[in-house]
Amino acid sequence: LHANAQHSSESSISDTISSSTTTDSSELEGDIEEEEEVQESCWRNCYKQVEALLFQVIITKTVMPVKIAEEDEESAHVRKQWMYFAWILCETTIFVSAFFVVIYGLKMDQKSTNEWLFFSFKNSFTRVILLAPMKIIIFATILAILYGQLQYVPSYECNTETAMKKDMIGNPSFLAQILKTRRSAWYHPLYYKTVLSIRRNEKNWRRWKIIINFTVVLLLYITLMVQVLMNWDGLYIPTRRNIQNIFDIKKSTDKVKDFGTYLDYLRTVVMPALSIKYWYNGDM
What we know:
Layout: H1 2-58, H2 73-106, H3 110-150, H4 160-169, H5 172-183, H6 192-230, H7 243-246, H8 249-252, H9 259-274
Helix pairs in contact: 1-3, 2-6
């Protein structure tokens, strides 16, 4: 009996130990699975947030323009005049700047001009092609985040289209204006094909405008490079005329003895040195 009792107690202890180990292992496995699920859910939520942010940045909603007042013919004419004046002023500024850039390039030798052109094009490429789109993307991301937080606030929600429709439907003056417009002999709605052709023409005009602007800038850069490269030749630049040698007092003032020789010195030495063509040399 004593042996049987001892054997039964040992078996019960082993059963409790095995059951405790199995429960501990199952709890550990459950904790590991829960942690993995939490990590997966966190990564999934982060991915969804990034996807929603990119969707808001790339595929944005079209915003209807807000018209404070209708533009009459006189104001439209004045606006077009100022637009043409601004365009002419911008083009003139670009070409004048290019002219001064060419003059600056002619004052240096071939190696310095090559280095200067390389670094100028490199800086313009990095600023216009790389940094400008990055800044636009960063600002667009910030605005998308702010817009995503503010668009669901009830106090700021306002659908202008529904408000205008509600105001127009019950407005008798608006209905009378519609009837008057449709009863006139000149009223004729456009066909759908005509509307499509107008939209197609506007799209083509915008595309051609972008191409023309790009072509003008490209021609400006090509003209600048060609002018600088051509003016390195001796046909366009006087050969090695240095202003310091012209104004050397020891060499130039030895012949000045009286007022007549001084006038000859001014006419033959000083005035040609002040001419702009003598600045185009390789020594300066």
